[in-house]
Fold:
Amino acid sequence: EPHLTFMRETLGIMQHHDAITGTEKQKVALDYAKRLSVGIRACAANTRSVLNQLSVQSETSASTSETRSDYIFDFKICPLLNITSCPVSESNERFALTLYNPLAHFTDEYVRVPVAHHNYKVIDNKGVTMEIQLLPIPSAVMNMKNRTSNAQYELVFFATNLPPLGYRTYYIEKLNSSEGFLRPSFSPKKT
Amino acid sequence: SSLTVIGNEYIKLGFDTNGFLSEVTADGLTRIVSQEFLYYEGAKGNNAEFLNRSSGAYIFRPNKNKIHFVANQVDIEVYRGEIVQEVHQKFNDWISQVVRVYRSKSYAEFEWLIGPIPIDDDVGKEVITRFNSGIESAGIFYTDSNGREMIKRQRNRRDTWNVKLNEEVSGNYYPVTTKITLEDTTARMAILTDRAQGGSSLQDGALELMVHRRLLHDDAFGVGEALNETEHGKGLIARGKHLFFFGQSGTRKGISLKATERIVQIESLLPTWKFFSNMKSYNAEEWR
Structure:
């Protein structure tokens, strides 16, 4: 509750016309951004505990009595996806990606994940291997100052049938270069 | 053909030998459509009286409507795959863009990256992206009202009074929260934004949106500093997306481009929330 209250108060500040239109001084704009960042990070604890409860429930319902409480996942958010950076997907050879759909209807989405290598396998919760494509991160993004990321590629796949106000999880793992080696399907044509 | 083409069965984009978008095929139409980045010089007023204010946080006022092209030659790299096809464009040292078409999607995504905007010439710059088409829009275009209904706009006019515009450019700029469109009896062009931007249609068939600004003079409306945002001493870099729709105007077989735009607008403005979990200790079977 204190996390949510902090977020409510922060969004209360963000109703100010300056915060909406960007007519505040630069230092105030940075303060607004910091408050939002702290609020979102604080509420990540709330989403993590909710998603763990949901997944344990689904686990419990699937396997009758036993509850697998040892399966507590960290469900981290990556706020720098907008500059194609995410420590979890860049530095782990195996990770899961949970997509929560906030809409009231089923939706599909092309997902882009920053990764450091060019050979991965993605499976969905039914064990189906997803079709993927890897693309190099544009050089202008790679060269952005202050972007500290070792991602070289974006892994793209098509997430379908994401349930309304629900979620789906995908398991992503790096393959050794020999396994099912797929030379990334791109052939840059310089002009 | 000398065009570099990416796309799918719904939409194809052709890029000319200079690396610019030059042709679009969609919804049974093939039209000349170009996209380019330009920038207005920010006006530097003396702020003494109301009519001579600088361009700043509260005001968009180009200096004598001077506009500059940012490039006449664009380096491109083309990547084609089963899921997505992309053209990576580099306009200059501070403007680049990725144009992509995903499989089975009827629109194109323009992901622009702009900044740091150079100011060593001591000129404030207001960067726009502009899409030009042959659509005979007769000065009429539409901008959304906070993501809901579309409001009809007419160049150099106002609905409720006889306006005399002192600023032909900024006097025709309107707030675009999610969408700006124009059409004629046959074709329609729409651009969805991922954030609120200023936008207009200053020539028939053309739509422009302001994507980034860096100004050097306060506009004397109270904030007391120029809109010259920096990060680690360098100008701010802005990155964002525009979704580009093109097709026949009106409704055919019960489907209208507007309806598709509406669905995509909701899905792109309320995308999935992404949560990453380290799986060091679980293999795929255990995870399942």
